[in-house]
Amino acid sequence: MAQANPAQAVANIYRTPELWQKIMFTALCLLVYRIGSHVAAPGVDVQAMVDFFRNQQKGGAGGFFGLYDMFVGGNLSRAQIFALGIMPYISASIFAQIAGAVLPQVDKMQKDEEGRKKITQWTRYATVLLAFVQAWGFSLFTESVQGAVGTPGFGFKVQMTLVLTTGAIFVMWLGEQITERGLGNGASLLIFFSIVERFWPGIGQTFSYLSTGAVGPLALIAVGFIMLAVVAGVVLITLAARRIAIQIPQRTMARGRMREAAKNFIPLRINSAGVMPIIFAQSLIVVPGALAQFMGNEKLRDFSDYFQPGTWLYFVLSAVLIVFFTYFYTSIIFNPIDLAENLKKQGGFIPGVKPGAKTAEYIDQVVSRITFPGAIFLTIIALLPMWIIDLANVPFRFGGTSLLIVVGVALDTMAQMQQHLLLRKYDGFMKKGRVRFRGRGGDAGF
């Protein structure tokens, strides 16, 4: 992959007014988001919430709240006004995707511009409903934390619910503004910066452990090489695609005769499902622990201990669920029948394969085969943080959901910057790369 001059590529950004304005607008929206992330919800003792989450993580019982807290940049554990973040909107978008795969009426609407506008509006309404339900649940959870609420009661629940719901709606609006007027996918960028923001405290903590001797320098160097290799592997698999050769006949404008078919490719991503299989799998695994925590049942709590991170049942169940959800989510976001029909309408074909049903069957077989190594890759990345902690005894997690999101969003944003620069006939960050083969990982922003 031939590399362009990075300094020249950065300089070209300043010479592209439209791109520079998009970057500045995106930065302004992200700044507003991060400012709001440091405003605490009224009536909550933030330190009590932070101490509770810290104790939960030390005991290995971070569960669903720990996963959610990662996506919102720690706003949940600090009980900020943006505690729900962009996640209600992401959840509503996923529901819309699944509805399109299950309900023919919704699928038809997704192919029409007016229908897509209606679905977008329904997604917003669903976001408000989900935010309200989650905010009410979080208010109940906050009252259960000892010392977190000074004056618990119905009034506090109503106040907390209104504040968090309003915050979630404002974050949804910020994400839409970034998507429409800024650079990149707004929802993905909000999650990206929420995750990246937590990297720096982790790096500082690591060096403090090194100075106290809790972590040896050789172990830290070894982990550093492993991290570089893992990041390179994630980038490689994220960009990797199986290219299916196709031919599309062309007509000459003068005589209307058929010329030699133009050769092209259909890029099928190895990891079409993105990070969603890991999220689905982890959300299911933490259900027993969450139920035990809310119900206070000792037998259920003992049963949930079998599913705690680090147990053999947790590893096996995680692997099975990730593989299952990889195939499941890929089948939702990828429709080989539509792809075959669109190819047939253009007069294109796959050499050696009949157009229509045979083409759809062939594409489906290829997708099924390349999905398996993608599922194995996701399984390894998801379980990698616990393996690193156990083997190297380091006080931080590396890999998993956060790494996939950070790499995926960074590549997508770079691809958009590349397109803007190439439209102005400037060299981008890569003269010839595969970022354009990344495709879409679904409307959920991942």
Write up this protein.
This protein folds into 2 domains: 181 residues, SecY subunit domain (Preprotein translocase SecY subunit); 235 residues, Preprotein translocase SecY subunit, CATH 1.10.3370. The chain is 67% helix and 5% strand. The chain contains 18 helices and 2 strands. Strands 1-2 form a two-stranded antiparallel sheet. Strand 1 and strand 2 form a beta hairpin. It is globular and about 75 Å long.
Please specify the SSE layout and strand pairing.
Elements: H1 6-14, H2 17-36, H3 46-58, H4 63-71, H5 87-102, H6 104-110, H7 113-144, H8 154-181, H9 186-196, H10 199-212, H11 217-239, E1 241-251, E2 258-269, H12 276-285, H13 287-295, H14 298-304, H15 312-333, H16 336-345, H17 357-392, H18 400-423
Antiparallel strand pairs: 1-2
Q: What descriptors fit this protein?
A:
Preprotein translocase SecY subunit, globular, 446 residues, 67% helix, two-stranded antiparallel ribbon, 5% strand, single chain, 2 strands
